[in-house]
Design goal:
Blueprint: E1 3-5, H1 7-15, E2 19-24, H2 30-45, E3 49-54, E4 72-73, H3 78-87, E5 90-94, H4 104-110, E6 116-121, E7 132-136, H5 142-155, H6 161-174, H7 185-197, H8 201-209, H9 214-227, E8 228-231, E9 236-241, H10 243-248, H11 259-264, E10 271-277, E11 283-289, H12 295-302, E12 306-307, E13 311-316, H13 320-335
Parallel strand pairs: 2-3, 2-5, 3-4, 5-6, 6-7, 9-10
Antiparallel strand pairs: 1-7, 8-9, 10-11, 11-13, 12-13
Helix pairs in contact: 2-5, 2-6, 5-6, 6-7, 6-8
Length: 337
């Protein structure tokens, strides 16, 4: 499914619902938070009861976005979230294409429900068990899809500054400040419309990118100085970070945002990866590429992940050292062809 834009069905589902629940993926990023907050504000304007649940903590640099004070975390409020799911009659899945991306425990809560479910997402290969979709793999972000849903469903007059700030945050971060190939003429057109409403793009940029802690900058320095591995023969670079290394630098969620792009920025590099070990020993992976190297396919094939052509995520349960070894083995296998 490359594109399915069921705007009218989605709008009528909202208007016919009493208790709406919006969910997004674990380790929420800028697009996850921006898109959910934008949709929350819109649904609230329609006079409907709506709640946003995220699987776990999200970065502090996103806490300023309007509506984030209403977010409920599953990992710290499991009993409440279970009740919210039971009481809901419409559930949105934003910025993820399969339920497993919310985490194993929350996935069990959301699975097998006799509820109407709607997906708004731009990742490849979406699950096929949803009632309706606003899905387009060519869209720059889920936030762009939410904006177009509001605008094209006849509700453009309801887009105010709060909605713009939320959705622009998602577009800004998921396009890498408008430098990724997914950035389209429509993306820029939307930003122009937001600016006419009153959006201050420099304000949002500063709140997201010019708000670093000293610990984050020192972690970045450590990574670039000691943890960046470059393989010129493969046009590849990667970064590994152990849980202990992150603890030593007072790591907070979001502190490694964008680190994988530093590896990709090396002259000649076409493929990069960031590997982060968590407390349990499992490894979270971020992949980036240039040109036609498909990291979505690479992540799906070897690391239980997926995403986009040039940006994807994955996971490994074999430990950091073994994961690094497997990455190199598979990279040699694929890139040497």
């Amino acid at each position: 499914m490359a594109q399915k834009l069921q705007y009218e069905e989605t709008l009528q589902s909202i208007l016919g619902a009493e208790n709406i629940l919006i969910t997004t993926h674990r380790s929420p990023d800028g697009d996850a938070i921006g898109s959910t907050m934008g949709l929350l504000q819109f649904i609230t304007k329609l006079g409907k009861k709506c709640t946003v649940v995220v699987p776990d903590e999200f970065p502090e640099f996103l806490h300023w976005i309007p509506g984030t004070d209403q977010i409920i975390r599953f990992d710290t409020n499991k009993e409440l979230v279970n009740k919210l799911v039971v009481d809901s009659d419409l559930i949105f899945s934003l910025d993820y294409n399969v339920l497993s991306r919310v985490g194993e425990e929350f996935c069990k809560v959301l699975s097998g429900l006799d509820k109407k479910m709607i997906m708004i997402d731009h990742h490849r290969e979406p699950a096929e068990n949803y009632n309706y979709y606003i899905h387009d793999i060519e869209a720059s972000s889920t936030s762009q899809l939410v904006y177009d849903f509001i605008a094209y469903s006849g509700n453009k007059d309801k887009i105010d500054l709060g909605i713009c700030e939320a959705l622009y945050s998602g577009i800004l971060t998921d396009t890498g400040s408008f430098r990724f190939p997914s950035t389209s003429a429509r993306t820029h057109e939307i930003v122009g419309e937001m600016m006419e409403i009153g959006l201050e793009i420099s304000k949002v940029y500063n709140l997201i990118y010019d708000n670093n802690s000293i610990d984050r900058l020192q972690l970045l320095g450590y990574v670039l100085g000691q943890k960046l591995s470059y393989h010129k023969d493969l046009n590849m670079a990667y970064i590994t970070l152990s849980h202990q290394e992150m603890t030593d630098h007072n790591y907070q969620p979001g502190d490694t945002e964008g680190f994988v792009n530093y590896a990709l920025s090396i002259k000649g590099v076409k493929f990069s990866c960031l590997m982060k070990e968590n407390e349990s020993g499992s490894v979270r992976m971020s992949f980036r590429s240039k040109g036609d190297f498909d990291v979505n396919k690479f992540a799906r094939t070897y690391f239980s992940g997926g995403g986009h052509l040039n940006a994807a995520g994955g996971r490994s349960s074999i430990g950091l050292e073994a994961t690094e070894k497997r990455l190199l083995e598979k990279a040699i296998e694929v890139l040497s062809k």
